[in-house]
Design brief:
Rossmann fold; 7-stranded parallel β-sheet; globular; binds adenosine monophosphate; 415 residues; alpha/beta; single chain; 2 domains; 8-stranded parallel β-sheet
């Protein structure tokens, strides 16, 4: 396995000798310099190599895998048999799938290639129809794809490229079994790309089974947070969270705010509270219908609503430009989600602010996050509900010590 570290081997897109229409679209998007994952992977992918990409969120990996696929297909059109697909991109959520397909459509404008996205929660019929004539690019989530495969609507006889995106998230969301079932339908010989933010043992094992002599591109460790994000903690009591939120949203600098919460129900309650403040707000979580999720995301993207409230599962990996602030209403239970959450702001080189509410019972959780990112997050006392955690920790230490003394005394008495 060839490991390519931080070295950059590509300075601009021109030297890649991509199809002119792809270069034109890249320019139109305003990309002047390839991001590290693009610089390190595109030259190898154009040569047909397998790839293991370990990349943090917002790294530009969508273009890294889409551009080589489109360049290859654009140079050599293939007559597709009914229901056969030439490339498959498997990704965990509907939002990610939609986003990827949108990128494919943009970069592939001017090429006579077909693409479609399929996911659950919406009618199957239009998807079945779109698959009838075969597709150059199929972007799919695992459950619906498996369903369509089992009913004979998708075949892989002509498959050339398989991309498994966000592999560790597939694992987290319990999709690994479905992913493996999908893989069992794929021909052995094709170019395979696996992207994952982290490498838990199950994904490492899968990568070994799936990839043949891959190049390994490790752009950034999962423990790294985005440099362009200012991180702060607001220490407070739980009862003051909504009032603090109100104070913050009264400030127009909070122009585009993504709030992360723990539960779907909690999210709906926060939305209600924000709407009562006459601030425009929407929510995305898995209880919402696909149409509602699309609408919420679009209106946030377009700036029609100022605040979007989301749970981890619904929002991970979503690319929304110009998010001014990420607010962690609760600290995430899984510390790696902290990195995913704050990565929603400060994207593509822009600056952003991530503020995490932390209540006394979450002090240990904050410590775990700090350990993971190997960095202390500043507790900003400049907010009206600030609580001094050091007094809480020393009080709880005193309490513990007192308990210990009591126990010792009791022990002493017994002897
Ligand atoms: P991704 O990690 O694929 O979701 O991409 C993150 C963001 O970076 C998206 O908004 C892309 O449009 C943007 N992006 C991708 N490649 C580049 C590039 N070479 N230069 C600037 N922005 C980019």
């Amino acid at each position: 396995m060839l490991l390519i570290g931080a070295m950059t081997i590509l300075k601009d897109f021109n030297s890649l000798k991509l199809l002119p229409s792809i270069l034109e679209q890249v320019e139109k998007k305003g990309y002047t310099t390839p991001t590290p994952i693009q610089a390190q992977s595109i030259p190898h992918l154009l040569k047909g190599r397998d790839l293991l990409g370990i990349a943090k969120t917002g790294s530009g990996k969508t273009a890294a895998f889409s551009i080589p696929i489109l360049d290859r297909f654009g140079r050599k059109n293939v007559v597709l048999k009914p229901n056969q697909v030439r490339s498959l991109i498997l990704t965990p959520t509907r939002e990610l799938a939609t986003q990827i397909e949108k990128n494919i459509t943009t970069y592939g404008e001017g090429l006579e290639l077909s693409s479609k996205v399929v996911f659950g929660g919406v009618g199957r019929q239009p998807q079945i129809k779109a698959l009838e004539g075969g597709l150059d690019v199929l972007v799919a989530t695992p459950g619906r794809l498996l369903d369509l495969i089992n009913c004979g609507h998708v075949g892989f006889e002509q498959l050339e490229v398989f991309v498994l995106d966000e592999a560790d998230m597939m694992l987290d969301m319990g999709f690994l079994k479905d992913v493996k079932s999908v893989i069992s339908f794929l021909p052995i010989k094709n170019q395979t790309l696996l992207f994952s933010a982290t490498m838990p043992p199950a994904i490492e094992k899968l990568s070994k089974e799936l990839l043949i002599n891959p190049i390994k591109v490790k752009v950034d460790l999962e423990t790294s947070t985005v440099d362009t994000v200012i991180q702060k903690v607001y220490a407070l009591e739980k009862k003051n969270k909504n009032e603090l939120l109100e104070t913050m949203l009264a400030d127009s600098a909070y122009s585009s705010v993504l709030i992360f919460c723990k539960t779907k129900l909690g999210g709906d309650i926060i939305v209600q509270h924000i709407e009562n403040m006459s601030v425009s707000c929407a929510a995305i979580h898995s209880n919402k219908s696909q149409r509602e999720r699309d609408e919420a995301l679009n209106s946030f993207r377009e700036g029609e609503v100022r605040v979007l409230v989301a749970t981890d599962v619904a929002a991970r990996g979503i690319d929304i430009k110009n998010v001014s602030h990420v607010i962690n209403y609760n600290l995430p239970e899984d510390p790696t989600n902290y990195i995913h959450r704050i990565g929603r702001t400060g994207r593509a080189g822009q600056s952003g602010v991530a503020i995490s509410f932390c209540v006394p019972s979450e002090i240990a959780r904050l410590g775990t996050i700090e350990k993971l990112i190997d960095q202390k997050i500043e507790i900003d006392a400049d907010q009206p509900f600030h609580v001094d955690f050091s007094s809480i920790t020393s009080a709880s230490k005193k309490k513990k010590n007192a308990k210990g003394m009591k126990a010792k005394k009791a022990k002493g008495r017994r002897f």
